[in-house]
Amino acid sequence: MSECIRVVKDPEERRTKLLEASEELFLQKGFGKTMVSDIAGKVGAAQGTFYYYFKSKDEVLAAILEKIWNRFAAKILKIINTGKMNALQKLQTVLGLLFQPKTEDRMDMDGFKLLADPDIVRRFHVQSDEARIKAICPIIQEIVKEGIEQGHFSSLKCLDEITEIVFFGINTYMHKYSPNFSDKAFFNKKMEALEELLEKALGIKEGSMKLTI
């Protein structure tokens, strides 16, 4: 007599599959045109399964944004920890990867294509910025600590807080002007201001911070 065996998937595995399917469909069809039924169907599940893990498409997108920026952070760490960069070089590299035109596409093409979806840009840029700050700010804080130990940066009593304030401000400022960064002269003017700000905030020798292209 044959016995029917029901295969029960691990909850975390099911959630991961839903995230992967959602990201793929958002890329293919756009966030606005993707239905919950599309996502559930792609993993062979009922719509109720989707709602067991996520309250809405917005919630699944928030998880995807966090995943995209964590992937980007992991790539940044791999780059700056390969070779023998000092703290100043690491900081320049991280900021270059974050803000220089086209860098994001080279680092993670699919993820950053998704972030260019007009629906996502219009409705979720705040969530995307929050995910970016959460993923990247700790890396910058560690670099600043390292720079102080190496003698490249001035000592800061409230290092984590000051680093967070500066990075939050930079992130907001750069986001505002990023649509015009294809203009090299415009981009370099913004980078010169950023160079001066960081040199003064971190006590770096004038002219040492190089971010222009």
Topology summary:
Layout: H1 11-29, H2 36-42, H3 47-53, H4 57-80, H5 87-99, H6 103-107, H7 109-114, H8 118-150, H9 159-177, H10 184-202
Helix pairs in contact: 1-2, 1-4, 2-3, 4-8, 5-8, 8-9
What's the Cα radius of gyration?
A: 21 Å
Please give the domain count. Answer: 2
Please state the overall shape, judged from the principal axes of the Cα atoms.
Answer: elongated
- Which architecture of the largest domain would the CATH scheme give at its second level? Orthogonal Bundle
Report how far the terminal alpha carbons are from each other: 73 Å
Order of helices and strands: HHHHHHHHHH
**Remind me, CATH topology of the largest domain?**
Tetracycline Repressor, domain 2
- Tally of contiguous helical segments: 10
On the 0-100 scale, what is the average pLDDT?
Answer: 87
Structure report:
This protein has helices at residues 11-29, 36-42, 47-53, 57-80, 87-99, 103-107, 109-114, 118-150, 159-177, 184-202. It is an all-alpha fold and 213 residues long. The chain folds into 2 domains: 7-54, Homeodomain-like (Arc Repressor Mutant, subunit A), CATH 1.10.10; 61-202, Tetracycline Repressor, domain 2, CATH 1.10.357. The longest helix has 33 residues, at 118-150. It is elongated, with a radius of gyration of 21 Å.
In short:
This protein is mainly α and 213 residues long.
